[in-house]
């Protein structure tokens, strides 16, 4: 058994792990990056980038079909599923290649390949013939799709988002379980590319939305494109030949059966900590079997182990993983001199059409009576109507105590851009009045944001009065 000693061992060469390695190397000389699978981040290989490629194709088809409202006649729009998927795979492979090349620039002696597992808190076994003794360890092992027991027995008729991007052609039909971020993005894209879609959820959830009115509008809009039951009553899921048969109760309580070519499980993701023999690290764990950690230092309790990215199951988003990797790598290298790192304003975007953006505090996180609300209905917003994208609702929230902007939930056109503006304002601690007193061009969507903020400011003044 070969043995090496290092200052920091980083497990996982994804977005969080790469940032952790690079920042640890600024403070320590002996740092290794351990990866048991292929190089190339989740985002590049099966996440952010290939999904946006599929969405871009779907939006192109959708816009062509909708050109008639502008007096533009586009006849017989045809989707070449094979060509669509070939472009998705080609561009996906390009993104993966770039991510892989960046990883391979790390000195070869710092890159270890093999499955890592704890022997004790400061000792890792990598593969079968290497033992790594580390002064501190960063867990950055990412996550994988969570597949429910309900789907057992479906065999190759069951797919997760990882599988979709390797399709050679588009299927005829797909049933989607889970109207979260992944389910909504892929489900709507496939529907717009001509795939017959039905979507089931539990508990009434629609993406990350918590504001009941915004959520209701989003649900209604998606239902206009494909059947969506956000609080479904599914009786059984079974395989019959090469089909998936779903037995469910419809809105009228009638029991129905429908057949699909595939079932797409978009039922969340599971942190990859269960294959690390993490019990040998003797870390305090929560009731979900996850290490207890500080999200500002990424330190697991008061130990020499740190956890970053999707592995900690907090916010599985690339920018969050990158920030956490920076903090974890620096603190692991400087252990026991651990210091809090800067955490940005929470920001998440769902690339549906209309888009969903969540900024700062969600309404469901705010204490009743402590905040006021302003809103914008995009059906009356001038720029939205000009573009023919006048669907959606925005809610903005402000604090009665000090007039500061707290957060927003947006279901509306090109919400990714307003989401960023609002995140910058929230992170700077701006008041609603300060946000109103900024330049707004005409005619732009942001004029609607100003209207919502003005309504919010009036509500704050009346509430304080």
Automatic annotation (TrEMBL):
Intrachain S-S bonds: 43-48
Sequence positions that bind FAD: 52, 141-143, 310
Residues in Pyridine nucleotide-disulphide oxidoreductase dimerisation domain copies: 348-452
Active-site residues, record numbering mapped to chain: 442
InterPro entries referenced in this protein's UniProt entry, alphabetically: FAD/NAD-bd_sf (IPR036188), FAD/NAD-binding_dom (IPR023753), FAD/NAD-linked_Rdtase_dimer_sf (IPR016156), Pyr_nuc-diS_OxRdtase (IPR001100), Pyr_nucl-diS_OxRdtase_dimer (IPR004099)
Keywords associated with the record: FAD, Flavoprotein, NAD, Nucleotide-binding
Name of the protein this chain belongs to: Dihydrolipoamide dehydrogenase
Source organism: Alkalispirillum mobile
Taxonomic path: Bacteria, Pseudomonadati, Pseudomonadota, Gammaproteobacteria, Chromatiales
């Amino acid at each position: 058994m070969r043995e090496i000693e290092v200052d920091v061992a980083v497990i996982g060469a994804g977005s969080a792990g790469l940032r952790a390695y690079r920042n640890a190397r600024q403070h320590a000389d002996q740092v290794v990056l351990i990866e048991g699978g292929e190089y190339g981040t989740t985002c590049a290989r099966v996440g952010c980038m290939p999904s946006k490629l599929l969405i871009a194709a779907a939006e192109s088809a959708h816009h062509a079909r909708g050109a008639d409202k502008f007096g533009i006649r586009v006849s017989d729009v045809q989707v070449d599923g094979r060509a669509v998927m070939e472009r998705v795979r080609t561009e996906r492979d390009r993104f993966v290649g770039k991510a892989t090349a960046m990883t391979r620039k790390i000195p070869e002696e710092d890159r270890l390949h093999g499955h890592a597992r704890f022997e004790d808190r400061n000792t890792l076994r990598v593969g079968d013939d290497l033992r790594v003794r580390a002064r501190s360890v960063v867990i950055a092992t990412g996550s994988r799709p969570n597949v429910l027991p309900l789907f057992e027995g479906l065999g190759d008729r069951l797919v997760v988002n990882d599988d979709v991007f390797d399709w050679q052609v588009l299927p005829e039909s797909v049933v989607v379980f889970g109207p979260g971020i992944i389910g909504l993005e892929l489900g709507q894209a496939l529907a717009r590319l001509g795939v017959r879609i039905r979507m089931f959820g539990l508990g009434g959830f629609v993406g990350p939305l918590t504001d009941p009115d915004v959520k209701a509008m989003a649900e209604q809009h998606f239902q206009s494109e494909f059947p969506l039951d956000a609080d479904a009553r599914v009786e059984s899921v079974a395989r019959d030949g090469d089909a998936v048969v779903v037995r469910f109760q419809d809105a009228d309580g009638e029991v129905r059966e429908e057949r699909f070519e595939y079932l797409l499980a978009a039922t969340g993701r599971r942190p990859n900590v269960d294959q690390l023999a993490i019990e040998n690290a003797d870390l305090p764990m929560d009731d979900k079997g996850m290490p207890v950690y500080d999200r500002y230092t990424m330190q697991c309790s008061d130990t020499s182990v740190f956890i970053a990215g999707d592995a900690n199951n907090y916010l599985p988003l690339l920018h969050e993983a990158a920030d956490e990797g920076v903090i974890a790598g620096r603190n692991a290298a400087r252990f026991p001199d651990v210091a809090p790192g800067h955490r940005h304003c929470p920001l998440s975007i769902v690339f549906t059409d209309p888009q969903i953006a969540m900024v700062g505090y969600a309404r469901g996180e705010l204490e009743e009576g402590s905040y006021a609300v302003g809103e914008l209905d995009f059906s009356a917003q001038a720029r939205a109507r000009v573009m023919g994208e006048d669907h959606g609702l925005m809610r903005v929230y402000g604090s009665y105590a000090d007039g500061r902007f707290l957060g927003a939930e947006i279901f509306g056109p090109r919400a990714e851009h307003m989401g960023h503006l609002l995140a910058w304002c929230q992170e700077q601690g701006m008041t609603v009045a300060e946000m109103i007193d900024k330049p707004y061009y005409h005619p732009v969507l942001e004029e609607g944001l100003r209207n919502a903020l003005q309504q919010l400011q009036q509500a704050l003044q009346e509430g304080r009065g």
